[in-house]
Amino acid sequence: MTTSQDHRITINTPDDGLIELVFGEASPEQRVECFKQAGRTFVRSVPEDQWVAAEKQLEQLPLLRGKGCRHWCLYKPDAPKEIVSSLRAIRREVLIRDERGVRQETGYDIAMVATDAKYRGHGLASFLTRKVGEWADGPGAAPVTTLYTAVGPFYVKLGWELLPAPQVSCELPPGVSLDALQRKRGGNQLLPTRLAGPDEMPDLCNRDIAQLRTRVEAYDLAPNTSLVTTLPIPEQLEWYQEMAKLQSLTWCNGREIKAVGAICEEADTWILWYQDLSHKELKIVRVKPGYGNPDLTKQALVQLLSRAMEEAVSWEGLLAKIMIWDPSSEVLGALEMLGKEMGFTPKSEMRDGVNQTSIRWAKADKRQTIFWPNEYYACN
Ligand SMILES: CC(C)(COP(=O)(O)OP(=O)(O)OC[C@H]1O[C@@H](n2cnc3c(N)ncnc32)[C@H](O)[C@@H]1OP(=O)(O)O)[C@@H](O)C(=O)NCCC(=O)NCCS
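Above: inputs. Below: predicted complex with coenzyme A.
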């Protein structure tokens, strides 16, 4: 039996009998317990103290600082550090186009939703998520909340809608060498490319955003449809840079991250990446196309994705795959061409049951929604 009233919920468990839990935004002490709960639920490969230290470091980033990252939890009133269920929400700068025009607002992305195994199935995560939805609709003033989830149907019941979540990936071909990749790339003098260092990232993001706004305004949107764009603000991409640094400390003796992407100025096209060592994937977090000439963009992407492959190979077995979310036809075409030359077959699929994109409009308003671009930089 479960009963709930305002900020409290009572559950009846076989082991502990009736337990009352309180909903609230986590205090600084409770945040640490929320980190621990997220760690033991999602990241068992990293020791708890290391995970907590990493989370504390991430909290200092401009994206999360102040109220940029909020944790909510259900805890025992007589032992507030005993967190039973928790989640976190990180702000997102979004561009929305609907019948009211185009506007920039602040939404949230929810992640790390967890209930301790002992207390699952009593409606706690539902209660917690619903309460956070109420906050988002009220004081949070969030027009949209997003989620990337492994348990999509669970959130649909709570007002979220699942959206298409395509991705393409390719394994590094066996025996591929830096030399061979560099030689192949050196053959193309028409579209020179170069690596982008961490210092360039803010400028690239700002250039990207300026062009995205125009694209959002020009998007051929069907009637009664709303368009949502998570803006690739520098703070958002910086979060991934910091994650890569932390992972490098854990898995690669703190090897310096020298390149965050690659750029082809001639084609006004670039890609940004994140060395996700924990999943052994080089994630292409953003593909910024040149908007005028799809063929030029595709040719540039062949070179840029070859650069990505070089980056992955340079991690000497620690990165085995390249992953791209929401690939455009130019990305798919470029990967196809590169695959033919290098001997790999790109794998296109939908993310069913893992990192599935979902969205909740304020007050669970149901809308026909285009979420574009739906690339990795917007996740978590
Ligand atoms: C998912 C989770 C947060 C649910 O917590 P909970 O407090 O037990 O949730 P509730 O009791 O409110 O709801 C349970 C519902 O979740 C559903 N659920 C749990 N795990 C699920 C899964 N892997 N896939 C689909 N649904 C799932 C249950 O079927 C149940 O549905 P019902 O209400 O129709 O019976 C919890 O199982 C958990 O911590 N899992 C591990 C972490 C995780 O996967 N988090 C979600 C990441 S986005």
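The pocket of coenzyme A is lined by residues 41, 85, 113-115, 120-126, 149-151, 153-154 (CB under 6 Å).
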